[in-house]
Description:
Distance between the termini: 27 Å
Mean pLDDT: 92
Strand order of the largest sheet: 3-2-1-4-5-6-7-8-9
Function: Catalyzes the phosphorylation of hydroxymethylpyrimidine phosphate (HMP-P) to HMP-PP, and of HMP to HMP-P.
Protein name: Hydroxymethylpyrimidine/phosphomethylpyrimidine kinase
Organism: Micromonospora sediminimaris
GO molecular function: ATP binding; hydroxymethylpyrimidine kinase activity; phosphomethylpyrimidine kinase activity
Domain Pyridoxamine kinase/Phosphomethylpyrimidine kinase: 13-256
Amino acid sequence: MTPTTVLTVAGSDSGGGAGIQADLKVFAALGAYGTSVLTAVTAQNTRGVDAVLPLPPRLVTDQLDSVLSDFAVRAVKTGMLGTPAVAAAIADAAAADRLPQLVVDPVLVATSGHQLGVVEAVERLLPYARVATPNSAEAAALTGAAVTDVAEMTTAARALAAGGPEWVIVTGGDVDAGAEAVDVLHGPDGTTVLRAPRVPTRHTHGTGCSFSAAVTVRLALGDPVPVAVRAAKEYVTRALTGARDWELGAGRGPMDHFGWSA
Length: 262
């Protein structure tokens, strides 16, 4: 059987825990064939980002044209865009209805604190998103309001959905909710709070990329958005659990994408 094809538009993580590398791992782990468009090259590892080189918008567009002209892509996710010019090129493709089931992961700041994107770049794409997946810090940057608890996550999700995306899920891995990891999903069906046990681990590098990649695969396979989001949350919880005792790198390590520790 021919596998379902999905596409990631994102930056490269030389440490392999986030970005294009993480997305392709998730695609493979969940049974999809992954294609990619690179927006930037980074020098990074588990301890942080040392350098970022955005690619020229024309080269990004050429990659996109090559993939879309040859593959029947069923869903697309974006991650790090790098510059407004690159975001504009991707937004043009979305406006032309070339990016089906678009999932926008508004990558603005790496776990290390290094700025990887700008708000203006993300805002160009939000009106075309079927699902947007900001974490609490990204939601705060996009709305201009604090996002520090579940109530503020709910307000942010509703505000962002009013600006274009059909569905918004504000992920709360960095929000203090006690023993739970809480996410807030808002869309045409209303607002839902998703809860799961918090996994005690420092190995959280790439959680946002991996979550949005998992949502993308599930949408490509035909899941409704609420079902896709729940499946993605379960996947990330398993991946965090599997890697909690790993010693890959000296900082925030990657997750167990393939269930090696299951």
